[in-house]
């Protein structure tokens, strides 16, 4: 399934949800195996906003998703216990429609290429990378959420589109986020030492 077909499928499902609670298993099925990709995008996108506390809360969800990606290959089925949870129909419909619009916007930038980098084997680097990016988002680093969140959003799109080139871009951005955050932490540590008169 290409990303445009995925957007169409999500839009159709959003308009056909019955009233009442909707099991997460049904929402995952609507994604045709791309539920992890959409969840990466949904959890990472709000971290781009300069709203205090949002990154700290969502980083926990991202860390759990990172563990899931590590334990279960991308495009695997939703775990049965999680699938039995449910969301209100209205919220589920809005979420599906939002993801459909997002995939419509980005579909022109993606296509299946270097698919091995965005397939099941990507669990070995995507899981650890998601955990590291979640940690960077959690840390109170000024403007430190931007690059990690963008890296995870790129990874989500790469998974959904089976676009290995986009996955490489995500990994590169993640490496840049780690390097810049480490540099900022080092500068902050040196500034604290200087204020305390402990600098060499």
Describe the structure.
With 200 residues, the protein is an all-alpha fold. The chain has one domain. Helices cover 66% and strands 3% of the residues. It has helices spanning 3-14, 24-30, 35-44, 54-71, 80-83, 89-106, 123-138, 146-161, 164-195, and strands at 21-23, 86-88. The chain has a two-stranded antiparallel ribbon. α1 runs antiparallel to α6 (89-106) and α7 runs parallel beside α9 (164-195). The termini are far apart. 38% of the residues are buried. This is Exopolysaccharide biosynthesis protein. The chain crosses the membrane at residues 49-71, 176-199. InterPro entries: ExoD.
End-to-end Cα distance, whole Å, is 59 Å
Query: Can you count the beta strands?
Result: 2
Order of helices and strands: HEHHHHEHHHH
Radius of gyration: 18 Å
Point out poorly predicted stretches: none
Largest sheet: 2 strands, antiparallel
Shape: globular
Strand content: under 5%
Number of helices: 9
Helix content: 55-70%
Structural class: mainly alpha
Number of domains: 1
Summarize the model shown.
This protein is mainly alpha-helical and 200 residues long. It has helices at residues 3-14, 24-30, 35-44, 54-71, 80-83, 89-106, 123-138, 146-161, 164-195, and strands spanning 21-23, 86-88. It has nine helices and two strands, in the order H-E-H-H-H-H-E-H-H-H-H.
Task: Annotate the secondary structure layout.
Elements: H1 3-14, E1 21-23, H2 24-30, H3 35-44, H4 54-71, H5 80-83, E2 86-88, H6 89-106, H7 123-138, H8 146-161, H9 164-195
Antiparallel strand pairs: 1-2
């Amino acid at each position: 399934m290409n990303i445009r077909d995925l957007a169409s499928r999500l839009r159709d499902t959003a308009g056909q949800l019955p009233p009442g609670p909707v099991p997460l298993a049904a929402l995952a099925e609507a994604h045709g195996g791309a539920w992890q990709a959409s969840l990466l995008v949904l959890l990472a996108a709000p971290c781009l906003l300069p709203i205090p506390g949002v990154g700290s809360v969502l980083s926990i969800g991202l860390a759990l998703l990172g563990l899931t990606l590590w334990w279960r290959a991308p495009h695997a089925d939703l775990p049965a216990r999680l699938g039995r949870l449910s969301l209100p129909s209205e919220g589920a419909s809005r979420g599906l429609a939002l993801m459909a619009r997002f995939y419509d916007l980005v579909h022109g930038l993606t296509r299946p290429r270097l698919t091995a980098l965005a397939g099941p084997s990507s669990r070995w680097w995507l899981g650890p990378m998601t955990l590291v990016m979640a940690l960077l988002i959690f840390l109170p680093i000024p403007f430190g959420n931007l690059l990690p969140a963008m890296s995870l959003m790129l990874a989500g799109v790469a998974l959904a589109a089976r676009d290995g080139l986009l996955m490489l871009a995500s990994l590169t951005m993640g490496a840049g986020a780690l390097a810049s955050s480490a540099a900022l932490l080092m500068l902050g540590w040196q500034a604290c030492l200087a204020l305390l008169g402990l600098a060499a």
